[in-house]
Amino acid sequence: MYDSPISLQNVCANYIGENIEAFCWAEGDEEAITLTFKKGHVYLHTTLSEQLLNILGQKRKINDEILSIFNSNNTRLEKVIMPNAMNLTCRGLKTLRQHHIVDLEATQLKVTISDLISSLSDWTIDNLRSLTVSDCTFVDSSKMAAMVSLSRLKNLRTLNVSYTEFNNHGLEIIVEDLRHLECLDLSETRVSEISPLRKCRNRLRALVLHNLKISDAAIPVIMDLPRLRHLDVSRNSNFSSRFQQQVYVLLDHITPPLSLSINELLLEPGALCELEHLDISGCDRVEIDALAQFIQCHRSLTFLGLLDCEACYDSMFVEKICPYTTSLMITGSANEEQILESLIRYPKRVRCTQRSLYELFSLTQQFCEPRVDVIELVLRAMRLHPEEFHIQMAATACVYNLTKGDVGQKIHPHVLKEVVHFTLAAMENFPNHLQLQKNTLLTLCSDRILQDVTFDRYRCARLVLDCLCIFEDSSMGRMSVAICSILAAKISTSETTVLGSTPKYMRKLLKMVRTKMESNQVDITLKFTLSALWNLTDESPETCSIFLREGGLELFLEVLEAFPGESTVETKILGLINNIAEVKTLRHRLIVDPFLVALRRLLRSPLIDVAYFAAGIIAHLAFGGVEFWTSRAIPRHVMLEELGIVVMEWSSPESEMVAYRSFSPFFHLILCYEAPQVQLWALWAILHVCSKNGKRYCLMLYEEEGDEILNTIAANSNTSEEVRQFCISIMDLLKMQGLVRNGKNASKLSIDEPNSKMLENDIHS
Q1: DSSP letter, residue 145
Q2: pTM of the model
């Protein structure tokens, strides 16, 4: 059903990366803070050190303080990968000087590439084999582009300067000074003349010229590089690269890359005999016959890039009926294999990723089985391009198709956790885009995700409520309140208080209730909205106060009048008001005749769910005594008499109809000897949940020392016989669980505490 679970090492490394600050001490002053492991004897071997650094980079956590953890006393680095390194300064980079580094990748640095090289040790300068500085800068504060520092790396084999200001002069320098250079990536740089590459014609094995502004004059130069095994001359069919636009503005050229006539190369059968990898994606007017001839003459070819080329739709590449294309890996958009290969090969190319995701979306609508391989490719795109709207738009649509319905039930929770993580990131980055937000809600509105997956539920609830407030869309509103009604029951009371006491959230939810009431609709949206309000007010006096201040009680009275006999609506409304009744400072707000009249009627409801909460409210209000009960319409003693009769008539339902996180709100009620009817309701409630879920609630009662209170009540001569019998019945249940306070410890059972008094098990219920 599931793929193999994530390894223990990866689990631990990811956890440490997510919570790195908790494992470290901060030292030094504000201008030079360093972090060290709290346990000073910690030493991470090379593989773990490199894995942790990479994880921190992926999580966008790398800065000077974080990098200081990787000192040579605690870690060892040889292959350094630092994506998203925009928060590093020269001070932080000095940590690298403590290590012997052979492979170095740092992207999106704000300091210059010269600064990076200057931070390396002499050993690293002499022995560095691979350097990737994609999306970094050579330009210093004086606006001068200094590339001469690259010439210090005499042993360099691989150099990636893509998406930088690297230019013709820089190319001339490296081909002269880097005598071991074999692999070069010049994608989207300022290089316009590649003829200097002839000086390294006998050693250059890989050349990437993606979206480079070169003309057909470059073709003869390329053909004069006989050792090439990897050649990428792909272009973007749409000129959309943000970086490239900035570069061309600096060059006073607002034009796309020149089109290469790749057919000249393809028609030369003797060129590039060692070629294994050829990418001509986006090249115009590729002749099929010329391409077929080239492939036939290059039997060592294993990969062919054809994305954004009409050639990818040719039967030779779709059906692979030709013997020389059978094992050829191809990128394109003609079928699933080509689309997935495109996502694998071009993870950092915005235009290619966007196009592939658009094509993938159509395919995902037909998937009937879990495709974790596809999900991981989509999530990687979301991680690498968090601020690219078109990628996030397409990716969120794909993610929904890949996780919805029965398919989602078969996907491992750790995969779904990542789905939620990147879905929430998209919600945060694009809060005002309706369709993207709708995509994210469709994904999140899943029983499987909301019930079985661990994620930041508070963050999710906050983002969903923000979405609810921004858009006036009925389907989005329905999904939003459905999600919130479940999440509010699973987050802490402090978190529900923050959400519920936010006035704009409360006003929006109450507005939705009023809209449904005025349109005379009792639908799933109304029920979920009431559930969300119920859970948000649970054990949250501040939220209850906001609810009253915004006119919630008056509105709920109108709803009760508008939908008489609608038991689901009545239960949820009374459940919320019961939360208010538990707040001592707010109870007086409920002693109003219209509400008490409605409450008395609902107390006699034939449905125990409704009657139970009505009785609970009466018990809390009556606990205040005669002086507190200021209503003349219904005297306190009349209400109490009816409360006692109703409770004694109840039969316990077959299933647990309510959930509690603590019995403490009941203890003052069961000690109310002056009003035994109040005691009866509280004891009936305790007996009900303890009899339905003894493992959880009997232990909870025991740990809160409720058994001692019950013994005290049972032994009190002023206790009524009915109350005493309830106490005895509950204590019998405790004995059945082995929870007898006789000087020995009770059995140590675990409690999985719910966070709400409402049992909401299914998002579609």
Answers
A1: B
A2: 0.86
